[in-house]
Amino acid sequence: MQKGKIGISTENIFPIIKKYLYSDHEIFLRELISNAVDATQKLNTLARIGDYKGEVGDTTIRVSVDEEKNTITISDRGIGMTADEIEKYINQVAFSGANEFLEKYKNDANAIIGHFGMGFYSSFMVSEKVEIHTLSHKEGSQAVKWECDGSPEYTIEEIDKKERGTDIVLYIDDENKNFVSKDEINRLLKKYCGFLPVPVAFGKKTEWKDGKEVETDEENIINDTNPLWTQAPSNLKDEDYNKFYRDLYPMAEDPLFNIHLNVDYPFNLTGILYFPKIKNNIEVQRNKIQLYCNQVYVTDSVEGIVPEFLTLLHGVIDSPDIPLNVSRSYLQSDSNVKKISSHITKKVADRLDEIFKTERQSFENKWDDLKIFIEYGMLTDEKFYDRAQKFALLKNTDGKFFTFDEYKNIIKDSQTDKDNQLVYLYATDAQDQFSFIEAAKNKGYDVLLMDGQLDTHYINHLEQKFEGARFVRVDSDVPEKLIPKEEQTELKLTEAEKDNLTTIFSSQVPNMEKANFVVSFEALAADDKPVMITQQEFMRRMKEMSQNGGGPMAFYGEMPDSYNLVVNGNHELIQRVVKDCEEAVGESVSSLRGKMESLESRKSELEKSKEDKKEEEVPQAEKEELEDVEKKVTELRGKKDEALQGFASKNKLVSQLIDLALLSNNMLKGEALNRFVKRSIDLI
């Protein structure tokens, strides 16, 4: 028996492994099976080129668990090792500068394993003792057993082993006994080894017999050695891709379509990306792309490895140029990974462009599901935006689709304002904003439907990209002002009538939590609505962005909603309110206003005399008179408002006009809606 110490420059590697790699300890099984795959593929290569003359035979890798002995065994029939090779590959662990490196990457298990080629040593994360039983493929080799108990000391002795290959026997320690479980090993094998290129067997297949599950004699092969992404796209059909998708995501709906990646220059890359059906909650759908290196599972946390917007896609990416055992921070800075990321973006854009050109109707039919991916990509990836301009669509409220250029040509004549800006009108809810949409269409305008969860940000982005253009929501102003033209209609209201109507209408707006209403007047056509409610575009958009993204916009979200109660002074119903008001309280209101104007005039004189004087230079009599005048003006204004509010409260037409405007905006609810219904019956 030979004894020795593992060649390392730190006193004891094993406590470091357990300490720093503990959080990721389940990867031990992936590492050991990956080594077994490598050994098997090397044997197949040697046999293929004639350097191995023996019979290759069955090369299935087998995993077994002994719950009584607390052992897990990984067996392969690959090239095996001689005692000298064990000395070279197992006992000499390159570990120069270890302490400094471990301190730097102490929270990143993969970085440590990958940096030092320590895949085999990950077994000591879960084991109190590890044995290697191995027989080299080389003719005349002697089988040997290597054993180590978690200290730098090891032993090597000759053993009697008939079959070529290697058995790794792990004696699992007390802290990790959960791994000595068929269910747990089965889970890890499915997660990390489901598509390895060499068959991996674990236990026997089962079947239902006499009302219970029993083992058969057939080995349970847990992996697909020839997964779909390794096959030629020309040999595959849609049903093959859909079946593979269902195998990956058993609970998901069928995808919209797929992109088969197959690149061999300037790097190797294969994979299949699927566009899933997704309409809500982006975050739930993330991390559905599985990253592989030569069919060995690496991670499903692909942010920074693939472009951000593609983390919404599902599927598989496989590249030998993506290292198996490195940190994500390394992956994100690796030049090969960056090239791969850029190429995937290009392939996705090319595929979408191809479908748009050859199957436009199908593309339009899928747009409502597709748009979240495309918009997210255009928002977060400048190169993708440049490519996507050709196939990104705008959908109007009639359900018709247009490219950016097509839509611009359609609206440029009718929707260019007096400042020569192109105005894109849009709605976010075709039902709630129906009356505004109809009003805009009656003026010859077209209205886009922008009802996606990213559309608030997307609109802002398009405004930056579209030269000489802006987006205006269809309910943000009256129809005449959505796209300002040179011609203007005259308002048929005096200043006194506007003042009266402001008090009348503002006094009858129902109280709403976190909502303010400002009465304004517009000179609209006589056949336009008498009262409308609009919401100023800037503030509304800021509030929406604060709800979607927070950050610097968050304070807008705390502000109350501000609405304009727009009174069409030229409508006959408004003119009737003016007439009714004049008949009911006109004389008293005019008298009060006359007195107020006289006092306001005197107030102005007193304030003017104070100008350029210090406070002590103003005569006391003038100070007292000014105070008395202000008090009288306030009292008169109160009486005037009281008279107008009294008229308004009794005038059913005023409340009816306000409620109709609220109803058009889906803002009339509860008690206010009930009063409206009763009033409507009375009026009828």
Automatic annotation (TrEMBL):
Residues forming the Histidine kinase/HSP90-like ATPase domain are 24-176
**Keyword flag Cytoplasm:** yes
Give the Pfam families listed for this entry: HATPase_c_3 (PF13589), HSP90 (PF00183)
A single MF term (Gene Ontology): unfolded protein binding
Q: Which domain of life is it from?
A: Bacteria
Q: Which PROSITE patterns match?
A: HSP90
Keyword line: ATP-binding, Chaperone, Cytoplasm, Nucleotide-binding, Stress response
Ranges of Basic and acidic residues composition bias in the record: 594-629
- Gene3D superfamilies reported in the protein's UniProt record: 3.30.230.80, 3.40.50.11260, Histidine kinase-like ATPase, C-terminal domain
**What NCBIfam families does the annotation carry?**
PRK05218.1
Q: What is this protein called?
A: Chaperone protein HtpG
* Lineage, top ranks: Bacteria, Pseudomonadati, Bacteroidota, Bacteroidia, Marinilabiliales
